[in-house]
Predict the 3D structure of the following.
Amino acid sequence: MRNKILALEESVLQLDLKEKRRKDFNDKVINYLNKFIDELNLKNGFDSDFKTSEAVFDLAFNEHGYPIDKILHLFEKAVNNTGIQPASGAHIGYIPGGGIPTAAYGDFIAAMTNKYSGIYYANPGAINIENHILNWFAQLFGFNIDQFGGNLTTGGSIANLISIVAARDKHNIKGKDYERTVIYGSEQMHHCIHKAIRISGLSECIYREIPLEKNFHLDTNALKNQLHKDLKNGLQPFLIIASAGTTDTGVIDDLQTISNLADQFNCWFHVDAAYGGFFYLLEAYKSKFKGIEKADSLVIDPHKGMFLPYGSGAVLIKDRKDLLKTNYYLANYMKDAYSGHEHLSPADLSPELSRNFRGLRLWIPMLFHGIAPFKDALNEKLLLTQYLYNKFKPLSYIELGPPAELTVFTFRFKSDHQNTETLNREILAKMHEDGRIFISSTTINKQMWLRVAILSFRTHLREIDLLFDMVEKHFKNQITTSSA
Ligand SMILES: Cc1ncc(COP(=O)(O)O)c(C=O)c1O
């Protein structure tokens, strides 16, 4: 028996790379990544050759594995060189992240040391790091740090879901209440909140899509009228959802007025600031967010406005009791972990128990770089956006959407002789085929618009000038200038 166990041990030891193999593995991975970063500027923002990604299926899982060079080679070909290149500054499409390297090293250290960040007792340092970050966020947005509850999530969708469920439980909404309970949002509310409403069982409540005013903000007069009407008709206004930075048009709703209405009608006030939230770091922009401090729940996404690799959202709930009500659970086998200390842990404040120690990917960059370069990057993106908008303005063949409040705006090509939608679809397809710069499209008022979202920390003047040149020298030629 002992010999059998020792023989197995010998095999298992392979999983813990021995010194020489580890060095070889490390060198190859780090060399690969260094080359990737050094050559990023040469890469396209998008590669439409999806067929190549199928090569992943060619390498079957077997009993004895493959050399790391072979694995990296396949990764380069099938993963890294296909689809969108979000690490590149040429990604001006969806809401870009970017992925600062120091955060990636944070992930690496977190995974290697594998500290357990679910419960304080298992690793107080890990939980203290996460609470330190959450306290900083809470202070930034004017929450009371002795009362708020927060959680570092994997992204904005889960953070929104946690918020909607907390609202449901705080207001004690049960199945029998659905048919008279009302949720208010706008057409520009992110679709992940519709999903959250569905997942939380609230899709049988009444949902009011409040119209937008001309610049795409939620129309607060329409909201007020609807609230009065609903109350008068014996319905129960419950939840009002506002956006601080909409995904399609980049605008910030009038949070102050909406928060007052939420107060007046005893509604939970939710703010989705997944995209826009970190612009609040800039003194000059704070006034645009007035009222954000009144949110009962607030979502921010460090993998957007703090340029982290994907995998970082955060939720702040004004009163931590509302988060505990849904998420706290003392399992029989966890009682030791809770005796003798009062500290709250991520497991008490979110649906997760075991989770990756995601605080480190924020903590290391925040301490190492300091906050100033993050603010500078946000300022740079705001200026790049205004610069591009202003360069488009005099072009007779471009129609612009509303001025950018943050770093997203819409535009489209126009022609007296072509259908606008067809023309823009054709041009976007050509842009994607070209791939040097990746932009996206959206539908507003049933019409297609092209859309730029400038938020990658690697997007600089070079990329914006390139996009402008592509439009002026190349894509403009798609427009027919006569009806012949
Ligand atoms: C305003 C807004 N809310 C929520 C989300 C969803 O966040 P995530 O993709 O991190 O789940 C996004 C994503 O772009 C967003 O822009």
About this structure: DSSP finds 17 helices and 13 strands in the chain.
